[in-house]
Design brief:
Layout: H1 3-22, H2 26-36, E1 54-56, E2 59-61, H3 63-78, E3 83-87, H4 92-106, H5 110-116, E4 130-135, H6 150-158, E5 164-166, E6 182-185, H7 189-199
Antiparallel strand pairs: 1-2, 3-4, 4-6, 5-6
Bound molecules: zinc ion.
The site of zinc ion has 6 residues, from strand 4.
């Protein structure tokens, strides 16, 4: 089945939910849906706040994702790359503020906003398995030019070994704007289950072509020593990350 019609349905669903939840004027809804026919397909994600979250670099993540991220940051640091974690787990309320507040501030429609930001209930950040990363020494604050930084290039080359993959590469089947800073963890059973609908939209030969063979999600043991690895020594300090959270 082509993913295209499915995308349209999900996007309309996203906007309906988002708009009904925030009492946005009806004109905005009409305008959004009109444009939304060619818009991105944001998929629904449950908020994972009830699960165990670990604090890493001032942000919260699921244990297995946190452990892998800390290992990745340690290795990056050995290669002379200092990562900064801009954003990890995000609640629906936080996403709501980002989505609707961002649209208001920029004076754009919700459909335009949806190209670069997921509506509340539709962000991978709700899962606690997704991160926004930046180069601490050459910060690009979640701009596409991040892919030309030392950190951006290092991640493109190495993140797959830590079971992180780019959620929205150029030309991604969801139609979301290219986000070289936004990575999702796919190295545990739960993470695989959570991201299965999004990952299945990719062609089979693309899916898993970049991630390490042992990222099959057979165990969650990677989280075992997370409690002692807060990441404080391997990341740069994060300054007010909410100001740069966009997607
Ligand atoms: Zn993100």
């Amino acid at each position: 089945m082509s993913s295209f019609p499915r995308g349209l349905v999900l996007f309309a669903f996203a906007l309906t939910l988002a708009v009904s939840g925030a009492s946005t004027p009806r004109t905005a809804l009409g305008q959004s849906l009109a444009i939304g026919n060619a818009g991105p397909a944001h998929l629904p994600y449950a908020s994972n706040a009830d699960g165990v979250l670990y604090k890493v670099n001032g942000q919260f993540l699921r244990p297995a994702a946190a452990a892998a991220l800390v290992q990745m940051a340690e290795e990056a640091r050995r290669d002379g790359v200092l990562l900064i974690l801009r954003s990890g787990y995000r609640s629906r309320d936080e996403q709501s503020r980002l989505f609707f507040g961002g649209a208001r501030e920029r004076g754009i429609s919700l459909a335009e906003r949806a190209r670069v930001s997921a509506p509340p209930g539709f962000s991978e950040h709700h899962t606690g398995f997704a991160v926004d990363l930046d180069d601490a020494r050459d910060p690009h604050y979640l701009r596409q030019s991040f892919d030309r930084t030392k950190a951006g290039r290092w991640l493109a080359e190495n993140a797959s070994r830590f079971c992180y993959e780019l959620s929205f590469p150029r030309g991604n089947p969801q139609g979301v704007t290219y986000e070289p800073w936004h990575w999702r963890f796919v190295g545990s059973k739960e993470a695989r289950r959570v991201f299965a609908p999004a990952r299945e939209m990719f062609a089979p030969d693309v899916l898993d072509s970049g991630t390490a063979p042992d990222c099959g999600g057979n165990t969650d043991t990677a989280a075992a020593d997370t409690e002692t690895t807060s990441g404080a020594t391997v990341f740069a300090a994060s300054e007010n990350p909410s100001e740069v959270a966009v997607d």
